[in-house]
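Teaching assistant's notes for section 4

Start the section by putting this record on the projector. Ask students to predict, before seeing the second block, whether Annexin will look compact or extended. Collect guesses on the board.
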Amino acid sequence: MAAIGNRGTVTEASGFDAAADAQKLREAMKGAGTDEAAIIDVLAHRTIAQRQRIKEAYKQTVGKELADELSSELSGNFKAVVLGLLMLPPVYDAYELKSAMKGAGTEEACLIDILASRTNAEINAINVIYKKEYEKTLEDAVSGDTSGMFKRVLVSLLTAGRDEGDKVDDAQAVQDAKDIYEAGEARWGTDEVKFLTVLCVRNRKHLLKVFDEYQKISGKDIEESIKREMSGCLEDVFLAIVKCMKSKPAFFAERLYKSMKGLGTTDSVLIRIMVSRAEIDMLDIKAEFQKMYKKSLHSFIKGDTSGDYRKILLELCGSE
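Reveal the predicted structure now:
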């Protein structure tokens, strides 16, 4: 029943009663109009495990799927958040990936955000769910929807083959840094495979050492070199991997900031991160956001969204 992480803003509700919560949700949807406040009150303050039990209790007592009922009652971004909260993490990720590749055009940012930040176990779980839900492997879907080197990087990440130990081979780290330098800054044109081999395979501690060595050899930060050497989605995916290795909370804080800054809001990004990280590391993301932008994530969400959508996001964000 515990939360899936210990740095989340959403934690286990004490005195939890699945049947009582199911009843509350039923009441919120009965008759004319919907009581959105009651829906927020329940769903934004329960862990994913608790929400699964509410779904079971609802089905037992009402004889209908809670997600279907909510889906017909709600709309827009508020509905997207609520339905996301009802899904298990790999199911939600698989759903988001599927949506990102639907129809004409691909939302590459979604593929990058998810595949660059998840652990091997998380990616394996997503692969299993995707195949089961959509009767096609995620690798086939990604391969059919992307191309070139960008596709190869995503396929490499999908194999969930990253070393997740914490052994650092100093000599290898120096060699890796040299290989990347010689594949990029030191030559005309870029040998992207070298970047892939190092960035998609090595463990986090080792890569942090590689980044240090790279700085010594080239006098540049690895991110700076990637920006100079690559462009488009390939640049984005390599940068995302580097940033996630340095700090996942900082990576997500930056993604949230960019989703809300300037004109219009990229709601798909905002919703995906708030839903998927609320129980894992939202406290750290908030701290990084404050540190990086000198403003609270809470104030940004407040100024950039409205209505019930704003209310539920603020609850997931936790107190200012």
